[in-house]
């Protein structure tokens, strides 16, 4: 008789691991976290016209990464950082040209505050999306 690798003798019926694919409970490698975070960040940036695209980008990253919930949170954070980069680059590019044109310093301080708040929103929603993707991977 060949042993079945998909179930373990000590697994309880109805446990939360019933929905996970084999190997999903193993920690993800750092390279997986970075690659899937990059993929999720690009997906979120491409879907930026959709409401809550930052959550969708994090969810894509968390779903693809697998591993443990902490890995999904890290992957969502990487996706959030990747989604923040185009916005921050655009704002700093515009600030450079406005600074050359002689804009007041207060404008730069307000712009930095806006970039900081937008980065916190994007990073936070990417982390939430990463956990949501992890949860959906276990259920679908």
From TrEMBL:
The chain crosses the membrane at residues 33-65, 77-101, 107-136. InterPro entries: DUF5518. Keywords: Membrane, Transmembrane, Transmembrane helix. Residues 1-22 are annotated as: Disordered. The keyword ATP-binding does not apply. Pfam families: DUF5518. Residues 1-18 have a biased composition (Polar residues). This is DUF5518 domain-containing protein. It comes from Halorubrum lipolyticum DSM 21995.
